[in-house]
Amino acid sequence: MTAKKKILVIDDDMDFLMATKLILESGGYEVFLAEDGKSGVDMVKSVAPDLTITDMMMETWGEGFAVVSKIRSMEQGKDMPLIVLSAVDLQGPYQSYEPSDEFPKVNMVLHKPVKADDLLKYAKQLLR
Amino acid sequence: MTMTENNSGLILIIDDEESIRDGCTQALEKSGYTVLATGDGHEGVRIAREKHPDIAYVDLKMPGIPGMDIIDILSREIPDIVLIVITGYASIISAVESMKKGAYDYLPKPFTPDQLRAVTTRGIDHRNLTLETRRLKEEKEQVEKNFITFVSHEMRSPLVTIEQYIESLKVIAGDCLGEDAMHIIERCEKRIQNLEALVEHWLDISKIENGTLTQKKEPVNLAAIVARSMEEMIPLCQRRGLEMEKDIPGDLPAVIGDEESLVRVLINIIGNATKYTPSGGRIHIGAEYDDLDVRISISDTGTGIPKDKIPFIFEPFFRGKGKEDRQRGSGLGLTFCKKIMEAHDGSIEVQSKEGEGTTFLLKLPR
Ligand SMILES: Nc1ncnc2c1ncn2[C@@H]1O[C@H](COP(=O)(O)OP(=O)(O)OP(=O)(O)O)[C@@H](O)[C@H]1O
Ligand SMILES: [Mg+2]
After folding, report:
1. In A, which residues are within 8 Å of B165 by CB distance?
2. I need a surface site. Which of B4, B167, B204, B213 has the fewest CB within 10 A?
3. How many angstroms separate the CA atoms of B85 and B71, rounded?
């Protein structure tokens, strides 16, 4: 039997984290939670997850992107699959954000709320 | 109490008569103002551009550049400068003309130091009032903007979280839940979605109102917009047993506008048609144009709108009394449509007969 795959979820809403955790656990994953960007980045190092899912809008619009950049610059995060969750429609007040050339690519952007089926499907896809 | 001694403010005097310059400088400096003076019009413009004085006194009759031209240049170039005309020939006509060009007041020669000080105080008050008004307006706009950002985050995120919890509940308890419990969950989802749609609509309308909704202004193809909107709404029509057809001339001219907003207008109106048309009914989308504008019509064979309700349907939160579930809504759909059409310099009109059906007409200028 192989060990459970590890998924890290970063979001500043504890309830959202709990809901996501329940869904992912039903798919047989080991789930780790981080309530802010900084502890998320730390956990990428300490937990070495197989997949990280991070919210795009913690505190400020920038933080999600900062987290992604940070993760991508780390040894453990360089090639790790990364899903970004966003509840913002990009028409909104944050449209002024323009990803720069050096913005590290994420593997997928999903909109909140995420259907349980979709979340499990994409996690499986990226963890293959 | 007079505040003559501790005034502050930068005053520029442009007058070719040395005695006037010296007199004004003395009188105003005594009252606490800082004064710059020049006898040369071009020099005056240069100083004004560089120092941005609060007030500039300009002599209308000077050699070289006419005072009227100086007024014209300064009022256009230097925001909030208070321009006061000094006029030797106390001619009403030239004073009026200079006011039209942006002067705030005029001071006929000869004048006493007290008259000069009174006019200056009035000028400074006027300027302060203008600045204060603008600051308040900007502050108000900022508060509105922040409020929208706040609401979009603080209202959306709990809704999203509840939806995510419901998703997880279905996953972990789905198999154990009976039909009744599943039904309750479905109803919760439905009602949350309605609330979400309301928040979304309301945000859109607020954004249009304070000008933060980004709207493109580029040539758009209305036939393509109709096609896109229909494509989006066909599944709903099928579910509700409605037929939807279009009849759009192939040579419909392009109009200037924002494609996304216009698609949403059409989706709203088609959505209404599906809500208020019993199954078996028909939705027809047509288009025509002339030299002035392009018109799109959306007709249904539904319940129609009572005559006495028609004047209110574009008002925010106005809703007819639909009892059926599919007829739920926020009452903001048509308000949104109207605002978008107005932002396009277009219009939206309605014709309806109870029991027969409704036609919405969208007009866009060519
Ligand atoms: N095609 C139609 N046929 C009959 N009545 C209509 C039609 N379109 C609009 N109405 C009436 O106008 C009212 C206002 O419409 P509007 O689209 O603004 O709100 P809504 O559809 O009730 O809610 P929502 O904000 O979700 O769109 C409706 O409640 C309905 O009574
Ligand atoms: Mg509607």
Report:
1. 15, 18-19
2. B4
3. 8
